[in-house]
């Protein structure tokens, strides 16, 4: 696929037409207050993996609604003091997978916390966290689960889990709570942006080719899943577009970005039909912190920069710690 979205010059100036709800902050303050009524109950159990350079802990913590959420905490084998911690969120359909698939950040000397994704983890990278909350009829996938009301929407639970994952990562004595960063790609990038807007004291975020940004444009620009799930739902449930877009506005990365208070490193791919570059730039251009940069991969699809972007992050992130 050749370039299909705006030109790079246009992307750098693009602003989303997504309308922020007047009660956006009230909605999220209420959501987090209700969640924190449940004890975090972060538990860490050592895991024997056969790996010699790292130690791995199987984590369980209370996410949205007090529901148990899994994760892995991986630290260098010789770690004996508080380390900077990188909290990572995974892509659509995936789960926390197996510990040996998450060695990058611990190999660089950091603590690394990867959050499992409730209800996902059956398309790739197996998951271990169910989503006990049901929903009204939805198109197969997660984009339309409970989509007609912000209170019931799936991503209300998942974004809240993300914030609690940061709290759980900070709860272990081998992590330095004052030096916490959030990273992720695709859906993980969208969660990263949301967490960056909800957690006021992160030292950095690094979302790669992020999903869940600029819903009004994404839902009409690309016919590739997962965004296409929205159109498929509305194709059947005629006349509900306004209601659905209102719900999605509470979860749009553009509005979380406007509250971003940490240095940010984004990435975008100009041939990305899954997360079109204009939707990524919409969040990047809205990111409030003045220290921000975006890596652009001009002939790449949703794989983005891949290992090249990992190398960029390995150079960029240590200076923020």
TrEMBL record:
SUPFAM superfamilies: alpha/beta-Hydrolases
Family matches, as InterPro entries: AB_hydrolase_fold (IPR029058), AXE1_dom (IPR008391), CE7 (IPR039069)
Superkingdom assignment: Bacteria
Pfam families named in the record: AXE1
Domain Acetyl xylan esterase per the UniProt entry, residue ranges: 1-317
Name of the protein this chain belongs to: Acetylxylan esterase
């Amino acid at each position: 696929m050749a370039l299909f979205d705006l030109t790079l010059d246009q992307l750098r100036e693009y602003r989303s037409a997504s309308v922020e709800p007047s009660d956006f902050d009230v909605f999220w303050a209420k959501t987090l207050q209700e969640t924190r009524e449940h004890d975090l109950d972060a538990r860490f159990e050592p895991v024997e993996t056969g790996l010699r350079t790292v130690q791995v802990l199987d984590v369980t913590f209370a996410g949205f609604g007090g529901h148990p959420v899994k994760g892995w905490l991986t630290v260098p084998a010789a770690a004996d003091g508080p380390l900077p911690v990188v909290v990572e969120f995974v892509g659509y359909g995936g789960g926390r997978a197996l510990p040996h698939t998450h060695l990058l950040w611990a190999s660089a000397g950091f603590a690394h916390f990867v959050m499992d994704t409730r209800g996902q983890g059956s398309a790739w990278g197996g998951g271990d966290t169910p989503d006990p909350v049901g929903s009204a009829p939805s198109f197969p996938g997660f984009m339309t689960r409970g989509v007609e009301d912000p209170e019931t929407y799936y991503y209300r639970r998942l974004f809240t889990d993300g914030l609690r994952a940061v709290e759980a990562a900070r709860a272990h004595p081998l992590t330095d709570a004052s030096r916490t960063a959030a990273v992720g790609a695709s859906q993980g990038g969208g969660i990263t942006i949301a967490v960056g807007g909800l957690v006021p004291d992160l030292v950095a975020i690094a979302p790669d080719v992020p999903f869940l940004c600029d819903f009004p444009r994404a839902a009409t620009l690309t016919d590739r899943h997962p965004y296409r799930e929205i159109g498929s739902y509305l194709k059947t449930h005629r006349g509900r577009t306004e209601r659905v877009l209102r719900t999605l506005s509470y979860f749009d990365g553009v509005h979380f970005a406007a509250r971003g208070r940490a240095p940010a490193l984004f990435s975008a791919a100009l041939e990305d039909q899954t997360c079109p570059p204009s939707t990524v730039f919409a969040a990047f251009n809205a990111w409030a912190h003045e220290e921000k940069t975006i890596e652009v991969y001009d002939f790449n699809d949703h794989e983005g920069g891949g290992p090249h972007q990992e190398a960029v992050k390995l150079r960029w992130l240590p200076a923020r710690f």
